[in-house]
Amino acid sequence: MTKPDLHTLLNKFPTLTILVIGDYFLDRYLTIDPNLAETSLETNLEARQITHIRNQPGAAGTVTSNLCALGIGKVQALGIIGDDGQGYDLKKGLQETGVDTTNLIETPTRFTPTYTKPLNKKTGAEMERLDIKNRDPLPADLETQLIRTLHHILPQVDGVIALDQVQEPNCGVLTNRVTAELAHLAKTHPETIFFADSRTRITDFKNVILKPNRDEAIQATGERDLQRCARAFTQQTGKPVFITQGPNGILVANDENLTHIPGIEVPTPIDIVGAGDSVSAAVVSALCTGASPSEAAQLGVLASSITIQQIGTTGTPSPEQIIERFRETKNL
Question: Looking at residue 288, which CATH number applies to its domain?
Fold first, then answer.
């Protein structure tokens, strides 16, 4: 990809509409000052003192944040959150980044999934995380509402990203029924980019582009060789696959063609949280403009090399940062 190619690709982003369906989490960071610790009079246990609270969208919300940062014209969220305080904070955070939350389904019968991350103010280290997740299967009426909404939105979008974060089967948004409907829609709407990322169920997705990381690919296929993993996925879906390999870049499989896009070395310190989500956002955005899979992977590598340098937060890359990083890698 040349510099003019990159500019042309990025200039098309404001014309795109991309839907992100899946598990929207609230990431809540609590800064704890150990110097202010008190002892509870009631329990005699340490009462840790919080001096700062920072909320930001997580999981599928990390993908939408990356899409907005890239300059995508319209980013739509489709998921299920609770009618609770965490849901209020999550929805507010999504709207502040520019996400259309009109189609988020709010219900008093489900939690808003939340990762609460205490941070030691003195050392900067993250302490034991506190997780709120739904551990009961998603009710059928909510599945039906979600699928109906998906059908309504689909004609308006250029691409669909499915983000499966919840490991417990059928307890998140992308249940077996919803995943099967995505496979059907991907087959009947070949002009739309369908893309899936799943921690533990990547092989459940059919007819869509897949993006597992190295460990997920090996675990899902039972193959130790990544090229064989990639070919197994393309045979499963009939679509390209992008296997991320951390600092080693991305392996792209498209039909019988395999392409390795090398990673970009950046100085330490780095924070890899959210790097995969930045790859997803960049790859799908590029594919929606008509870029080839290898060009999309190049953009994904550029994007992730920027986000991992943003310490203590789930980073996002801007078009200007991507252009500058491209210039640095080409010594222009």
Answer: 3.40.1190.20
The number of distinct structural domains making up the chain is: 1
Whether residue 121 is contained in a domain is answered as no
Which residues, including other chains, have CB under 8 Å from residue 27's CB and lie 6 or more apart?
Answer: 55, 56, 57, 58, 61, 62, 114, 115, 117, 314
Q: Specify the 3-state DSSP secondary structure of 51.
A: strand
How far apart (Å, rounded) are the C-alpha atoms in residues 142 and 160?
20
Summarize pLDDT for 104-155 with one digit per residue, the tens: 999 999 999 999 999 999 998 889 999 999 999 999 999 999 999 999 999 9
* Length of the chain counted residue by residue: 332
Domain that holds residue 293: 3-25+59-114+133-330
| DSSP symbols for 82-127 | ESSHHHHHHHHHHHHHT-B-TT-EEETTS---EEEEEEETTT--B-
> Is 51 inside any structural domain?
no
Domain assignment present for residue 10? The answer is: yes
Apex CA 31: angle with CA 41 and CA 66, to 5°?
145
